[in-house]
Amino acid sequence: MRHILVKVVREIYMKIIIVFLLMVFGCSRSSMAQLDRTAFPFSYLNTNVKSLSLGNATVSLNTFGNEEINPAVIGEEGILQISPSWYNYVDYMEWKHRGLKTNYRLGQSIFGFSFQRIAAGKQVETIHTSLSFPFIHKIGNYDLDLSASYSHVFKNGLTIGVGVNYLYSSEASATTVSAEMVKPDDSWSVDLGANYQFPEARFNDFALRPHLGVSLTDFGTPSDYIRSETEYPMPTTLRIGGGANIILNKKAYGRKVMEVSVLQNVSKILARIEIKSNENGLYADAMNPFKALIRSWGTYEYYDGYVRGKSDLSEQLWWHSGVELKLLEAIALRWGYQNAAKVEEPLSYRALGVGIDLYYLVFDYTHIKNDEDDNLLVGHHWQITGRIPLDGKRPDTILNVLFD
To answer: Record's InterPro entries (predicted)?
Structure first.
């Protein structure tokens, strides 16, 4: 009799646990998720050209400029690094992006700051449709993004980082035909990240240096971004991945002859909108961001134009791949591929890029293409990064090899 009672109690406990887990981790059909249902959607876009050319598969890299993917970056002691950015995103409208990033390392601490401004320009005639632009937006507005970051490097190869972002959106019209103006709004978000550089394994002809990384970006408070009566979630994104650098054990002119980096990442947008009801009927509202962290792992409903569809977990994942071949620590050839989630498929792309590192100046270029050429990122992108030594030291560069 005792064994039967124990068995019954055990089954009851198991059922309670199962129901609890379903309640916590399940996702009801009343929730929706989609990148074009998030506030400040431009904050999701990565502006680092090197990372773009590697398919955004850079969560395990700790180089300057990668803060939008992972705030855990390192710098060079006594070196101020500065990188401006300017892009024109063209779809059925024109958006102008202008920005500046900088960081400085002091001992084991790295301090960073960035400023970005996205302004909506005029409506243009293109072959693209509005569906190829997977963001909500206002007409004639501008968004500001001010970010400060801090990283700490540990001696065991671990780097952790945190970033704080202030976002502001100006007053603007919600549509081209609407006379009603959407009030200005702002929000705060945080970025968290870590990466680990494994000890280098040496072999006869080459050395192997694996690395892993994880980050959670744009985690913050919902915003009345485009409608004063509706809150939209931030484009919170979880990224995880790794890679390895394969370094040839041979030098020429005192520099490594060749280094190959192979990268693979996966990411997921953790943003949800709930359908709620009141005395006036049904309405949509952002899910609490902490709740969304847990409840963003099931099937959700989404809108494809005016048609409602469903997306399971496997269709919500973004896959990122990248390969870099570096010669003499100065010339880099890059290939990247980003396979976006089902709903955001227009943001999938292939990329080819090149980098030239003259130490004091670094030039990065990439060309982005997708099958339909309907990606707002399609085209040519380039970026210049400056390194300013503040410690009086003048390190040798590839220019010494060429001109000495």
So the answer is: PorV
